[in-house]
Amino acid sequence: MKLYQVRKGQFVYFNNELHKVYGVKPMYKLSVHLIKLRDLTQHITNAASVEKYKPKESDSFIFNHKAYTLRKDRNAEAGDYILIHNPMPDSLDTYTLNEIELVETSDNKGVITSNSHGVKHNEYLLMVPGRASDSSRIDYKDKENTEDESLADIGTLGVPSSELLPSFGDIYKKKDNNSIFEAMVVGIKDQTVYLGGGLEITQEELLNNEKWEFLYNLLDK
Fold first, then answer.
1. C-alpha angle 93-88-72 in degrees, rounded to nearest 5
2. Three-state secondary structure along 149-171?
3. What is the DSSP annotation of 132-154?
4. Alpha helix locations (H) across 12-169?
5. Could you report the per-residue pLDDT of 2-17, keeping only the tens digit for each?
6. Which pLDDT value is given to residue 177?
7. Alpha-carbon distances, residue 74 vs 4, 16, 63, 65, 91 (angstroms)
8. Structure confidence at residue 64 (pLDDT)
9. Is the pLDDT score of 164 beyond 60?
Protein backbone atom coordinates (compact mmCIF):
# COMPACT_ATOMS: atom_id res chain seq x y z
CA MET A 1 0.00 0.00 0.00
CA LYS A 2 0.94 3.65 -0.36
CA LEU A 3 1.13 5.68 2.85
CA TYR A 4 -1.77 7.94 1.81
CA GLN A 5 -3.97 4.83 1.50
CA VAL A 6 -3.42 3.67 5.09
CA ARG A 7 -6.09 4.71 7.59
CA LYS A 8 -6.55 4.14 11.31
CA GLY A 9 -8.78 1.16 11.95
CA GLN A 10 -8.14 -0.70 8.71
CA PHE A 11 -7.63 -4.45 8.80
CA VAL A 12 -4.37 -5.30 7.04
CA TYR A 13 -2.12 -8.28 6.51
CA PHE A 14 1.44 -7.92 7.78
CA ASN A 15 3.86 -10.86 7.71
CA ASN A 16 0.91 -12.95 6.49
CA GLU A 17 -1.16 -12.34 9.67
CA LEU A 18 -4.21 -10.18 10.29
CA HIS A 19 -3.56 -6.86 12.04
CA LYS A 20 -5.41 -3.61 12.66
CA VAL A 21 -3.94 -0.15 12.10
CA TYR A 22 -4.08 1.90 15.29
CA GLY A 23 -1.92 4.81 14.19
CA VAL A 24 -0.19 6.41 11.20
CA LYS A 25 2.85 8.64 11.78
CA PRO A 26 3.89 10.06 8.38
CA MET A 27 7.01 11.77 9.75
CA TYR A 28 8.69 8.45 10.61
CA LYS A 29 10.26 5.87 8.30
CA LEU A 30 8.34 3.12 10.09
CA SER A 31 5.09 5.05 9.98
CA VAL A 32 2.38 2.39 10.36
CA HIS A 33 1.53 1.22 13.90
CA LEU A 34 -0.30 -2.11 14.11
CA ILE A 35 -1.99 -4.41 16.60
CA LYS A 36 -1.98 -8.13 15.76
CA LEU A 37 -5.57 -9.21 16.36
CA ARG A 38 -4.60 -12.72 17.41
CA ASP A 39 -2.75 -11.68 20.59
CA LEU A 40 -2.94 -7.84 20.70
CA THR A 41 0.82 -7.42 20.39
CA GLN A 42 2.00 -4.16 18.83
CA HIS A 43 4.15 -3.82 15.73
CA ILE A 44 5.63 -1.00 13.64
CA THR A 45 6.26 -1.16 9.91
CA ASN A 46 5.92 0.83 6.68
CA ALA A 47 3.00 1.14 4.28
CA ALA A 48 4.64 -1.00 1.60
CA SER A 49 4.66 -4.00 3.97
CA VAL A 50 0.89 -4.15 4.58
CA GLU A 51 -2.07 -5.18 2.46
CA LYS A 52 -5.60 -3.97 3.19
CA TYR A 53 -8.47 -6.34 3.96
CA LYS A 54 -12.13 -5.34 4.38
CA PRO A 55 -13.97 -7.59 6.89
CA LYS A 56 -17.38 -8.89 5.83
CA GLU A 57 -20.21 -11.11 7.03
CA SER A 58 -19.22 -14.75 7.69
CA ASP A 59 -15.54 -13.91 8.15
CA SER A 60 -13.98 -15.51 11.22
CA PHE A 61 -10.74 -14.68 13.02
CA ILE A 62 -8.94 -14.92 16.33
CA PHE A 63 -9.16 -11.86 18.57
CA ASN A 64 -7.17 -11.95 21.80
CA HIS A 65 -6.83 -15.75 21.61
CA LYS A 66 -10.58 -16.26 21.02
CA ALA A 67 -12.38 -17.19 17.79
CA TYR A 68 -15.27 -15.07 16.47
CA THR A 69 -17.51 -15.13 13.41
CA LEU A 70 -18.98 -11.93 11.95
CA ARG A 71 -22.76 -12.01 11.46
CA LYS A 72 -25.58 -9.58 10.64
CA ASP A 73 -28.55 -11.94 10.79
CA ARG A 74 -29.78 -10.38 14.03
CA ASN A 75 -29.36 -7.17 16.01
CA ALA A 76 -26.86 -7.09 18.83
CA GLU A 77 -28.14 -7.46 22.37
CA ALA A 78 -26.74 -6.50 25.77
CA GLY A 79 -23.54 -8.42 26.41
CA ASP A 80 -22.67 -8.90 22.71
CA TYR A 81 -19.55 -7.56 21.05
CA ILE A 82 -19.70 -5.67 17.77
CA LEU A 83 -17.23 -4.68 15.05
CA ILE A 84 -18.07 -1.19 13.80
CA HIS A 85 -17.25 -1.68 10.10
CA ASN A 86 -19.41 1.18 8.76
CA PRO A 87 -18.97 4.06 11.26
CA MET A 88 -21.27 7.06 10.94
CA PRO A 89 -20.87 8.78 14.33
CA ASP A 90 -22.78 11.92 15.20
CA SER A 91 -21.20 14.95 16.81
CA LEU A 92 -21.28 13.44 20.30
CA ASP A 93 -19.62 10.12 19.42
CA THR A 94 -15.94 9.46 18.81
CA TYR A 95 -15.79 5.87 17.57
CA THR A 96 -13.86 5.08 14.40
CA LEU A 97 -13.48 2.33 11.79
CA ASN A 98 -13.42 -1.28 13.01
CA GLU A 99 -13.59 -0.55 16.71
CA ILE A 100 -14.69 -3.52 18.82
CA GLU A 101 -17.12 -2.56 21.58
CA LEU A 102 -19.35 -4.18 24.19
CA VAL A 103 -23.11 -3.58 23.93
CA GLU A 104 -24.82 -2.35 27.10
CA THR A 105 -28.34 -1.69 25.79
CA SER A 106 -30.19 -2.26 22.51
CA ASP A 107 -33.43 -1.03 20.95
CA ASN A 108 -35.00 -0.81 17.50
CA LYS A 109 -32.80 2.11 16.44
CA GLY A 110 -29.41 0.84 17.57
CA VAL A 111 -27.21 0.06 20.55
CA ILE A 112 -25.42 1.92 23.31
CA THR A 113 -21.94 0.57 24.03
CA SER A 114 -19.92 0.49 27.24
CA ASN A 115 -18.06 3.55 25.93
CA SER A 116 -21.39 5.45 25.78
CA HIS A 117 -21.42 5.41 21.98
CA GLY A 118 -24.71 5.28 20.15
CA VAL A 119 -24.27 2.94 17.16
CA LYS A 120 -27.00 2.27 14.58
CA HIS A 121 -27.69 -1.32 13.57
CA ASN A 122 -26.40 -0.77 10.03
CA GLU A 123 -23.02 0.37 11.31
CA TYR A 124 -21.77 -2.87 12.81
CA LEU A 125 -21.25 -6.59 12.36
CA LEU A 126 -22.10 -8.85 15.30
CA MET A 127 -19.17 -10.83 16.72
CA VAL A 128 -20.48 -14.30 17.54
CA PRO A 129 -18.16 -16.37 19.77
CA GLY A 130 -16.77 -19.42 17.98
CA ARG A 131 -15.87 -20.22 14.40
CA ALA A 132 -18.93 -21.14 12.33
CA SER A 133 -18.63 -24.12 9.98
CA ASP A 134 -19.53 -21.95 6.97
CA SER A 135 -17.18 -19.10 7.90
CA SER A 136 -14.22 -17.83 5.89
CA ARG A 137 -11.04 -17.85 7.99
CA ILE A 138 -9.16 -14.59 7.53
CA ASP A 139 -6.42 -14.96 10.16
CA TYR A 140 -3.81 -15.48 7.44
CA LYS A 141 -3.54 -14.17 3.90
CA ASP A 142 -1.77 -17.34 2.81
CA LYS A 143 -3.55 -20.17 4.59
CA GLU A 144 -1.16 -22.87 3.43
CA ASN A 145 1.54 -24.07 5.79
CA THR A 146 -0.04 -22.35 8.79
CA GLU A 147 -1.10 -23.99 12.01
CA ASP A 148 -3.93 -22.39 13.94
CA GLU A 149 -3.78 -23.73 17.47
CA SER A 150 -6.72 -21.57 18.58
CA LEU A 151 -9.43 -22.59 16.12
CA ALA A 152 -11.38 -24.49 18.76
CA ASP A 153 -11.18 -21.74 21.37
CA ILE A 154 -14.66 -20.20 21.61
CA GLY A 155 -14.50 -18.43 24.97
CA THR A 156 -15.85 -14.96 25.49
CA LEU A 157 -13.96 -11.79 24.71
CA GLY A 158 -13.79 -10.16 28.15
CA VAL A 159 -10.32 -8.92 29.09
CA PRO A 160 -9.63 -8.09 32.75
CA SER A 161 -8.27 -4.57 33.13
CA SER A 162 -5.08 -5.94 34.68
CA GLU A 163 -4.33 -7.65 31.36
CA LEU A 164 -4.71 -4.59 29.09
CA LEU A 165 -1.49 -4.15 27.19
CA PRO A 166 0.59 -0.97 27.47
CA SER A 167 0.42 1.37 24.47
CA PHE A 168 2.28 4.43 23.24
CA GLY A 169 1.53 7.53 25.32
CA ASP A 170 0.43 5.64 28.44
CA ILE A 171 1.51 7.31 31.69
CA TYR A 172 2.40 5.03 34.61
CA LYS A 173 3.28 5.85 38.22
CA LYS A 174 5.72 3.68 40.12
CA LYS A 175 4.34 2.59 43.48
CA ASP A 176 7.24 3.47 45.75
CA ASN A 177 6.73 5.08 49.14
CA ASN A 178 10.17 6.70 48.97
CA SER A 179 9.65 8.71 45.79
CA ILE A 180 7.12 9.84 43.18
CA PHE A 181 8.09 8.60 39.73
CA GLU A 182 5.93 8.86 36.62
CA ALA A 183 6.96 7.76 33.14
CA MET A 184 5.47 7.57 29.66
CA VAL A 185 5.57 4.59 27.32
CA VAL A 186 7.71 5.71 24.36
CA GLY A 187 8.29 2.38 22.65
CA ILE A 188 7.37 -1.30 22.67
CA LYS A 189 9.24 -4.21 21.12
CA ASP A 190 8.07 -7.76 21.71
CA GLN A 191 7.70 -8.06 25.51
CA THR A 192 9.95 -5.07 26.32
CA VAL A 193 8.46 -1.67 27.16
CA TYR A 194 10.61 1.46 26.80
CA LEU A 195 9.77 4.29 29.21
CA GLY A 196 10.90 7.89 29.14
CA GLY A 197 14.23 8.42 30.84
CA GLY A 198 15.78 5.34 29.27
CA LEU A 199 14.08 2.78 31.51
CA GLU A 200 13.40 -0.66 30.00
CA ILE A 201 11.08 -3.16 31.70
CA THR A 202 8.97 -6.13 30.70
CA GLN A 203 5.25 -5.87 30.02
CA GLU A 204 4.67 -8.34 32.85
CA GLU A 205 6.40 -6.08 35.35
CA LEU A 206 4.63 -2.93 34.14
CA LEU A 207 1.25 -4.67 34.45
CA ASN A 208 1.99 -5.72 38.03
CA ASN A 209 -0.50 -3.62 40.01
CA GLU A 210 1.65 -3.86 43.10
CA LYS A 211 4.56 -2.10 41.37
CA TRP A 212 3.00 0.24 38.78
CA GLU A 213 -0.26 2.17 38.45
CA PHE A 214 -1.73 3.23 35.09
CA LEU A 215 -2.78 6.91 35.19
CA TYR A 216 -3.94 7.95 31.69
CA ASN A 217 -2.95 8.12 28.03
CA LEU A 218 -1.84 11.42 26.55
CA LEU A 219 -4.21 10.93 23.59
CA ASP A 220 -7.13 10.97 26.01
CA LYS A 221 -6.23 14.39 27.34
1. 115
2. CCCCCCCCCCCCHHHCCCCCCEE
3. -TTPEE-SBSS-TT---TTTT--
4. none
5. 877 899 999 999 999 9
6. 61
7. 36, 32, 21, 25, 27
8. 80
9. no
Which residue type sits at 77?
E
- Closest by alpha carbon to 84, among 52, 64, 110? 110
Least confident span in 42-51, 82-91, 117-126, 178-187: 178-187
Dmax (CA) for the chain in angstroms is 59
Residue 200 identity: E
User: What is the rounded (10 degree) CA torsion for 28, 32, 38, 40?
Assistant: 50
R_g over Cα of the chain: 18
Average pLDDT, the chain: 83
φ, ψ of residue 219 in degrees (nearest 5): -70, -20
